[in-house]
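Sorry to interrupt, but I need a hand with the structure work. It will help me judge whether the discrete encoding reads sensibly. Write everything out right here, beneath this request:
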Amino acid sequence: MTWKTQPRSDFGPLQAIAVPASSGPNSQQIGTTAKPPLAILLHGVGLRAEAWAAQIPPLTDLGFDVLAPDMPGHGQSAFTPLDNVQGYAALLGIALAQQAPDRDCLLIGHSMGAMIALELAQQHAKRCIGIIAMNAVFQRDAPARAAVQARAARLDGVNLPDPSPTLTRWFGAETSDPAPERKACHDWLTTVSPRGYQQAYRSFANSDGPSPLSLKTLRCPALFLTGAEEPNSTPAMSIAMADLAPKGRAEVIAGAAHMMPMTHVTETNSAVLNFAKECLHA
């Protein structure tokens, strides 16, 4: 699969890939009176909406209108000063209120996008029919917290760091013929706004994920999905969050690491679509 740049639409202050449901009763465009369910896909630090290219078509086939926004300072979204994960969620909440009021939403986030999605689910609990948190962080231990904060501290907002260490964490050691998904992530990491990357990474590094209380009061069904080989957003974290959420469950994808939506498309989509179907019929 290739991750080609796709057209964007305005989504409040952000730019987003917007794709209507492909068939059936939910095939209306955003803003009509039909109000079909909306799947919102939130990417992680340094990436862009195209990271969800493998998930968008099956979700539209299932009957969702799909919105995949670029995070501020990423992709085609302008930089917006924000202080923390809650600020990113609030910005998305404004966009939802402006352009998709009263729409039922399935929230799907990866890495920092998962942290934003979990916050957004609390801010808009009545509208959220389900949440999928992929490779989400929860209560890092002291060494992991120190490591991620050290990486954040080295960012100056002017120059982008060498992407090689990040790509190695995400995909393993580089080979003579890198996979298309690795090449795509390399391109995104080397073209993202330095200010946008610095701000997002610091917000990510300074958050330990949702609080236990917020998980205990999460009203909607929640799937915590993790790659078995993920060293930082570990399977144990997903299991712990699922245990706290009243309607939570955890699934672990064998052989997958951080970028499983791109590297393990079949397994990821199977988990996503099965859960999404449950949310539609709940």
